[in-house]
Amino acid sequence: MTTQQPNLELSKTREFSDLISDTFQFIRENFKPLITCFFVLCGFFMVANFVLLFMQELKILNTTTTIVTDPNNFDVSSPSTAFSRIFGWQYFLTLLFGMLTYSVMIITVTSYMAVYKKKGNQPATVEEVWGYLKYYLFKIFGSGILLALLLVIAFVCCLIPGIWLYPIVGLMFPIMIVENASLSYAFNQSFRIIKGNWWTTFGALFISAFIAGVALMVVAIPTSLLAFGSMYLHPNMAGVSKPFLALYLAFAEIGHVLYILPLVTLTLSYFSLNENKEGTGLMERINQMGNDTNTPDLPAEQY
């Protein structure tokens, strides 16, 4: 008789290889409920983001077509004319809603893992994660804008500070959600827990993001080939046809599900670093010794 293996423990110290392998193990163990939460809670924002992106790309396509096919009706001597047509209010609305969509993805995956831990390593439900999403949405969205500006400034001033801040800024989101902390607390806590483990954290995040990026490129290759084929068959068109543009953007939005991979690695990194500094997981297991195993908040012991 084989014994069932216990679900993945989040609060434990992990090395680089453990972060990568446990990321895939967690996704494998929680694939169905995690994917369900992702599409149910992020689906509306992904569809809305697709519509806004399609309208913006259509606007760029129409402007490009006008310049190529009918330059007499377009003032090419005025750079501000082209800028206003392409980068109008619709562009900034698309940019803003894109950041909102990414915020929802971050909250959904991180909150799922927070509930998973709170339930004793048991899958979270959509209703449980929805409660977190409602509470943290505007907090994470506002903080995300400030942190994005910080990263942009760091990368513009010099590339190295931006790279150095990348994992530190990323860890602030799990800290704010799991510990229900303010941005200022998360800022200080992130610097504290990553001290001495920056390379491990950065390496794990880089590898998981690289894997997700490569997978996303593979998904996008068929639609990209179709788009280039459309341009070759219709050389008189200034750009990609509308159906192929819509298909490409739809695949790109669906491909956002691959972002689950680096987000799980990010949250696992937080739990690992926090355990390394605080030993909270060990203390919880010590405190649970001798407790009634029938307590519903705790997992049943495995033998």
Report on this model:
The protein has one domain. The protein contains 11 helices and no strands. The chain has helices at residues 16-29, 31-69, 79-86, 89-118, 126-157, 159-178, 183-194, 198-233, 242-254, 260-278, 280-288. It is globular and about 65 Å long.
Explain briefly what this protein structure is.
By secondary structure, the protein is mainly alpha-helical. It has one domain. The chain has eleven helices and no strands.
What is the string of helix and strand elements?
HHHHHHHHHHH
Into which percentage range does the β-strand content fall? under 5%
The overall pLDDT average reads: 82
Q: Globular, elongated, flat, extended or rod-shaped: what is the shape?
A: globular
- Say how many strands there are: 0
Query: Any idea what the radius of gyration is?
Result: 23 Å
Describe the SSE topology:
Blueprint: H1 16-29, H2 31-69, H3 79-86, H4 89-118, H5 126-157, H6 159-178, H7 183-194, H8 198-233, H9 242-254, H10 260-278, H11 280-288
Helix pairs in contact: 1-8, 1-10, 2-4, 2-5, 2-9, 4-5, 4-6, 4-10, 5-6, 6-7, 6-8, 6-10, 8-9, 8-10
